[in-house]
Each structure stands twice: as C-alpha cells, then as structure tokens.
C-alpha cells in the first residue's frame, strides 16, 4: 500500500496516508451491515473531513483492482474475504476516534439514503425566471400519500429545503395533518420537538 495522501480539505486528525484510508474503507465497508454506495461514502467521509475526495476515489479504485472490495450490479461496494482480513488485522492502525466518527457518519448517510427513497423533492426553475418551485412528496407503493409545492427565491434555499424535507418529511406530514385536524396538542408537541432539533 502507498505512502502520503493528498490532504486538502482534511481536518487535523484526519487520515494522511493511503494505507490508513484503505484500511478505513475496508473497515467501513466490512462493518456497514449493507453494501455502501459511493454517495454514502462521500457524504460520510467528506462531511467529517476525514479524507480528501480525490484520495477517496483513488483508494476505492485501488482496493477494487487489488481484490479487497467489489462493486455489485447497483454500484454498491461490498467487502471481499481479503479485505475483511485487512480490516480485522489492521483496523487498530487507524485511530479509534477516526473509525468511530466515520462509522457514525456512515450510519447517518445510510439513514438519509433510506429516507431519500421515500421522501422525494423535485426542484425546478420558476416559470417567471426568478426563483425555484420545489415539490415535496412522500410516496408509498408508487403513489403520493402527501405532497405540496412552494416557491423559494434561490437555489441555496431550495437545496436546504430539500435536505430538511428528506430528513424530516414524516414530522412535516404529521404537523400538517395535526394542523388541518385542529389537533393543537400534537401541533405543540411537534413544534417543541423541531425546536430541540
């Protein structure tokens, strides 16, 4: 395994060698409980500033070439026996704080992916040429059980609204239903919960 990694965008305490990155990737892919997508790995590791994007992509490719991991037909990564051996034998070479942080971030990324499959958001430019319309929906069995549309002034607000709806769509649905049925106690409870978030 190779030497120093490119470290732009990596916080102090992040991984600085290709060897550490490859061990961490084998560890995460082997312990995730389900095959991981590139998006989940990117979201988890880059948001925590544990590795550089280019190093992540390069080391995933090398691990595939060397037969430690593989991509399934959906493009998701799974561990191979030789990769599992590396993860078990060498995982202590990666600081425990980094492993734990990465594992928590992977779990959060997997949860977001599951919610994203059910909570849909479409962002389209507004007809008048300024701002964006976003259409949010919750689907069950290919039909909408809840949907709404709203106008937002810019792309950044649209992206923030998308992320919040994916993360909290169920609570938004409950809040809307409670408000429409005049269930003031449930409205108060849901608003209190959202303030704590």
Brief overview, please?
The protein is of the alpha+beta class.
Structural write-up:
The protein is an alpha+beta fold. 55% of the residues lie in helices and 16% in strands. The protein contains seven helices and five strands, in the order αααββααβββαα. The strands form two sheets. Strands 3-4-5 form a three-stranded antiparallel beta sheet. A two-stranded antiparallel ribbon has the order 1-2. Strand 4 and strand 5 form a beta hairpin. Helix 1 packs across helix 3 and helix 2 crosses helix 5. The protein is elongated.
Q: What does the secondary structure layout of this molecule look like, with pairings?
A:
Blueprint: H1 18-31, H2 38-47, H3 53-65, E1 69-71, E2 77-79, H4 81-90, H5 96-118, E3 119-125, E4 132-140, E5 143-152, H6 155-180, H7 184-196
Antiparallel strand pairs: 1-2, 3-4, 4-5
Helix pairs in contact: 1-3, 1-4, 1-5, 2-5, 6-7
